[in-house]
Amino acid sequence: MTLPRHVVPGRTLLVTRRCFGRMFLLRPSPQVEAVFSYCLALAAEKYGIQVHALIVLSNHWHGLVTDPRGTLPEFLRWLHCNVAKALNVHLRRGESLWAPGSYSAVHLGDEAAVLDKLVYVITNGVAAGLVPTPGEWPGLHTLAEDVGTRVVDAARPDFFFRQPAADADEEADRADDSARARRRRREPARDPLPDRARLAITVPPAFAAMPPEEFRALLGRAVDERVAQLHRQRAGRPWLGAEAVLRQEPNASPGSTAPDGSLNPRIACRDKWRRIELLETQVEFWHEYRQALARYRQGDRDAVFPEGTYWLRVQFGVTCRAAA
Fold it and tell me: Among 270, 288, 307, which residue terminates a domain?
C-alpha cells in the first residue's frame, strides 16, 4: 500500500511526470504542443489550477502550479489521461504513455523554494544539455518574462477530439457496424470541446505582494545566474541542439533507462526550521491517517480523518477534520 496523499488547498507545488521507458513520446512537434497546451488549459480551467511555469521535454514534463481548491489529483488525472489518449492516436501506439510511479508533486514550503523551482523549470532544457539557453528549446515552455504576462491560446487539435462537424456524419456512423461504432452509439451524447482554450501564466501567490515587473526582474536575474553556472559546469562540452532534438524518434530513449536511485521528495524548503516543521506535519498526517483508517476498517464510520485526506474523502465521503 502506498502512502496516502496529503492534498491541502492553497499549496504551490512542482509537478513532474515521465514517459514510459523514458521514451521521447513528447518530442517537440506541432501535434504534441497542440495537444498538451489544449489539455493543460482545459484542465487548469476545469479544476481551478494556477500555472506559473512549465516545460515539456521529450520524455517528461515539469510544471509549477498552485492548487487553490485541493483538486490537484483530479487535474493531473484529467490532463495525463487525455494527453495520453490523444498522443497514442497521433503516434499510432496502444501502450502506456506515462511511466508507472513517475508522478511527483513536491510541496514548496517558502518563497525561496518557489523561486528555486521556477528557475529549475525554466532552465531544465539547459541543465539537460539540450540547448544553451532556455529560449532555444523548440517545444512548449515558458520563460521568466512570461510569468504574469503570457496567455497561451490553444486551438482544439484536429484529431482525436470530437469536432462539431462530426454531427453531420451521424448517418454514416449509424451504418458503421464496427465494434467501436456500436460502443460509441451506446454511450451518452457528448458536446464537443471548445474551439479554443486559454491558459494564463500567473505570478505565484508567494510573490503576489511584489510588483510584477520587480518579480520578473528578480526571476530573470536568477535564471541568468543559473544558465551561467550550467555553462561553467559543462566545461566546453557541446549541446545537443534543437535540430538534433527534433530528429529524435518518439519510440527511442536515452542510452540508459535504469532508475538513477535519486529520492522523490515531497517537500522543498530553503528555510531549515520551516522544512522540519513541514516534514513533522507530513509525518503527523500519516500517523493520524493510519489511526483513523484502523477505526474505519473496524466499522466506525464516524472516524475523523486528518485534513488533507484525499482518496477516501472523494471516493467514500469519509469525515475529515476542518482546516485550522
Answer: 270
Check whether residue 188 and residue 62 sit in a common domain.
no
pLDDT band per the 50, 70, 90 thresholds, residue 140:
very high
Q: Is 9 exposed, middle or buried (0-12, 13-18, 19+ CB in 10 A)?
A: middle
Give the mean pLDDT of the chain: 89
- Identify whether residues 204 and 240 lie together within a single domain: yes
Give the ranges where 153-241 is alpha helix by DSSP (H). 170-175, 179-186, 212-234
Cβ–Cβ < 8 Å for 306, 288: yes
pLDDT (0 to 100) of residue 170: 54
pTM: 0.88
Residues 259 and 245 in one domain: yes
Of the given ranges (172-181, 231-240, 314-323), which has the lowest mean pLDDT?
172-181
Cα separation, 137 vs 126, whole angstroms = 8
In the prediction, which pLDDT does 176 show? Answer: 56
What residues pair up with 304 in beta bridges, in sequence order?
319
**CA 53/CA 189 separation, integer angstroms:** 35
Count up the domains in the chain and report the number: 3
Same domain, 37 and 174: no
Q: How far apart are CA 112 and CA 228, in angstroms?
A: 20
**Whether the Cβ atoms of residue 121 and residue 63 lie closer than 8 Å to each other:** yes
First and final CA of the chain: distance in angstroms?
28
More confident of the two residues 254 and 248 = 248
What residue type is assigned to position 28 of the chain?
Answer: P
**Taking the CB of residue 229, how many other CB atoms lie within 10 A of it?**
12
Residue 16 three-state SS: strand
